[in-house]
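Need a sequence for this fold. Nothing fancy.
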């Protein structure tokens, strides 16, 4: 399984992904799911991948080759980020079609889902989720993030914390907590964890981290989050019946619960 998330903010973009692939209990491997493509000072793209590993590797290899060769309509010369999303969708669909018939005979699905983010000079940073069918969606003012893979466990923290005005550092920590929450609930998602923070108009792959399971920062973040969650839980408001119970004095009467007859005296 996989978990990847991308966040669009007023200050730029944040990307995070795990690195575990799974083809059964006995076939767990580590592969990067974050891929960068850039032309210095002009354009930068990040692609996050989920789905069939053979398909995603074929897609990434083709993207790199066509960008290096300057193929028309590729990442090398698209004018808008939406054009790049359309191109990525077409490549993804074509690579799936190449292998789907042979793989389907073995019961293997060739589909891949991708997140594309980045910026082209003259435009704004954007992110898109590209589906196996080739179509895509982008973010909204109320939902400034996109996820692929095992997304349900990591979504609540994103919903509660993120807004377009969230600072890049806070959003990066939020993404890491989101992945940590997913790893707690699903063993098929695991480190190394890759994080990339992109500042608007920088066109540079600068703020990048690859965090192993024993990384000091990752362990500190996980420990601090766990402790604060426990503290917040303990501080939740009490139920009325809990408060009443603590105030009971010796000799006062406690009424039976609804549906039960009689009452008894407290000892």
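Here you go.
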């Amino acid at each position: 399984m996989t978990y990847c998330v991308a966040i669009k903010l007023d200050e730029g973009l944040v990307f995070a992904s795990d690195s575990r692939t799974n083809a059964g209990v006995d076939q767990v491997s580590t592969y990067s799911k974050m891929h960068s493509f850039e032309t210095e000072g002009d354009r930068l793209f990040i692609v996050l991948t989920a789905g069939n590993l053979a398909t995603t590797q074929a897609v990434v290899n083709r993207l790199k080759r066509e960008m290096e060769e300057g193929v028309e309509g590729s990442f090398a010369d698209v004018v808008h980020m939406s054009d790049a999303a359309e191109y990525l969708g077409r490549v993804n669909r074509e690579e799936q079609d190449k292998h789907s018939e042979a793989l389907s005979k073995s019961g293997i699905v060739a589909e891949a889902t991708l997140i594309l983010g980045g910026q082209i000079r003259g435009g704004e940073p954007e992110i898109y989720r590209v589906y196996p069918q080739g179509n895509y969606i982008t973010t909204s003012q109320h939902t400034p993030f996109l996820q692929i893979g095992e997304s349900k466990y990591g979504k609540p923290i994103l919903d509660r914390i993120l807004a377009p005005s969230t600072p890049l550092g806070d959003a990066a920590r939020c993404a890491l907590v989101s992945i940590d929450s997913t790893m707690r609930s699903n063993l098929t998602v695991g480190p190394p964890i890759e994080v990339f923070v992109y500042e608007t108009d920088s066109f540079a792959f600068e703020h990048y981290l690859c965090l192993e399971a024993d990384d000091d920062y990752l362990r500190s973040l996980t420990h601090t989050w766990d402790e604060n969650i426990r503290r917040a839980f303990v501080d939740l408001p009490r139920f009325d019946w809990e408060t009443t119970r603590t105030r009971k004095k010796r000799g006062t009467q406690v009424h039976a619960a609804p549906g039960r007859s009689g009452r008894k005296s407290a000892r």
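For context: Residues 3-230 form a domain with the Glutamine Phosphoribosylpyrophosphate, subunit 1, domain 1 fold (CATH 3.60.20.10).
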